[in-house]
Amino acid sequence: MTLKIAIDTDSATAPYEQLRARIAEQARSGRLPVGYRLPTVRGLAGELGLAANTVAKAYRALETDGVIETRGRNGTFVAAAGDAVEREAAEAARVFAERAVRLGLGQQAARAAVDDALRAAYAK
């Protein structure tokens, strides 16, 4: 199993975001299994021709999202992210629902607001 990442230098999307999105997608799809050891920051930076800080920024974002976990000197690994991601999504939905009720939105208006936000987020 190897990490297969290509960075599009002509893309308007920042390299760290491309890297973050590709690792997250591969982890969530199972192409990178739980427990897979990721390359070191410096190693991956060298492979991709990126600055180490760029890879480190992507790894930090992935760790915050619960996709990967760092185990000190042992390395960085794909985490069992499904549960963490689902919990975070459920919490975000709960917070939104409470706010929609406080604002006096009906269920249809609240769903429409979510649909609009999702369309905008996925269009990026």
Structure description:
This protein is mainly α. It is 61% helix and 6% strand. It has five helices and three strands; from the N terminus they run H-E-H-H-E-E-H-H. The protein has a three-stranded antiparallel sheet with strand order 1-3-2.
Summarize this entry quickly.
The chain is mainly alpha-helical and 124 residues long. It is 61% helix and 6% strand.
Q: Calculate the terminal CA-CA distance, rounded to whole Å.
A: 30 Å
Helical stretch tally: 5
CATH superfamily of the largest domain: Winged helix-like DNA-binding domain superfamily/Winged helix DNA-binding domain
Percent of sequence in beta strands = 5-15%
Would you report the number of β strands? 3
Q: Major beta sheet, specifics?
A: 3 strands, antiparallel
Low-confidence runs (pLDDT<50, min 5 residues)? none
How do the strands and helices of this protein lay out in sequence?
Blueprint (H helix, E strand, L loop, with lengths): L14 H15 L7 E2 L2 H8 L3 H13 L3 E3 L5 E3 L2 H23 L3 H17 L1
Antiparallel strand pairs: 1-3, 2-3
Helix pairs in contact: 1-3, 2-3
Name some characteristics of this structure:
124 residues, 61% helix, mainly alpha, Arc Repressor Mutant, subunit A, elongated, 2 domains, 3-stranded antiparallel beta sheet
